[in-house]
Amino acid sequence: MNKSEYLQQIDANIAAGKFKDNWASLREFNVPEWYQKAKFGIFIHWGVYSVPAYDSEWYSRNMYIQGSKAYEHHLKVYGNQNEFGYKDFIPMFTAENFDADEWADLFKQAGARYVMPVAEHHDGFQMYKSSISHYNTYEMGPKRDLLGEMKAAYEKRGLTFCVSSHRAEHWFFMSHGKEFESDIQEPMQCGDFYWPAMPEPDHQDLYGSPPTAEYLEDWLIRCCELVDEYQPSVFYFDWWIHNAAFKPYLKKFAAYYYNKGEEWGFPVAINYKHDAFMFGAAVPDVERGQFAELKPYFWQTDTAVAKNSWCYTENNDYKTAEEIIRDLVDIVSKNGSLLLNIGPRADGTVPDEDRDILLRIGEWLQVNGEAIYDTSFWRIFGEGPTEVKEGQFTDGEAKVFTSEDIRFTVKDSSLYAAVMVFPDNGSVHIKALREGSPHFHGIIKNVRILGYEDQPHWERSEEALTITAAGMKSSTPVVFKLELD
Glycoside hydrolase family 29 N-terminal domain: from which residue to which, for each copy (predicted)? Predict the structure, then answer.
């Protein structure tokens, strides 16, 4: 199907379908029930940028910025950019040790419910079989449909398959290579790997340097091809789609995708950042951060096991499993979901550090998952002195929680109270559940600790619900299950 025919197909779908390309129609979208219940997913940044494994997944941009550390590193290790450019990493990206089934088993052990590989990053290299461009893993590099292999392996194990597209930023991502003698030079045309390499705009400018219709149509078709060929349950967008020029095409894509979900017979969703979508038309996402308070709407945070990079780089600065688990508990208590990123090596192996963190999370969820999965928020998200900083890019420093920090979730007739840092003396005081509390007037029939046989001692007073489990130690959150009448 040529470009014109594909665009006609998109328009025909919108004309015939339930969802139209306007905000009023798109706000009829409902968040899928499975998504709200899943709570924990895996994000995967893996691509050509995993070959140099230096700086970050933005290597393709930064290696062309004169004077940057990536530029100097490239000169030292690979030579001049006009002799060895980013495209020359493609044959080195062979994924020779990639096994989708091994990844799927790991993610299942980690307790994830959905998995979201990056299908195309800013560099413009597609991780799947595509009719839009020859620069994809089926025709180059591994010579395999990596995304297709992942979909089959994940779905076989009951993991919900999702995709992420970061193509929007490719409009300017390779532009700095035109500023000196490199392999990024005119002439270039649609379909070329580096095309269009336009001047990089101010990232806060929502109106300047608008992409051309040719580029936007190419972007739309690439996104719709992913939908048609791989039927993802969630489609994630990175940040630059909030540029004003994208809006008509974004609405077309959303209508097309939501209509496809109706055709397939299962609900789908879109993730977005900033205000790229009208509120209520998709699921908001907070990059490397979260909300300080409970939200009445479902939301997601995406963050990574490493603080410095989304992809594998040598000497990544890793978070601990304990701090990620605490973030998961905090996020879920506020009606959110955690999408946690790992960065595999270019050969397809998962670094030991990433693997160990995932398995540690999985061990905790094996014991405490009933307080996470399929739960909903309570009247308040929690209590305690620790204030969580709100907004994106706020998770660079570990939060210092205390034994007074409690987070709540609820399911059926049970209320779960997670103690973020279990006290050495084994005594926990929950003020929100005290006698006469404005938050709770019910009857507590029983209290037990998930994963522990011994019954704790508990009593309510006008000061607090006090639960004591002397002798118990834990470096991760401890969850009390309160059976209510």
Answer: 8-370
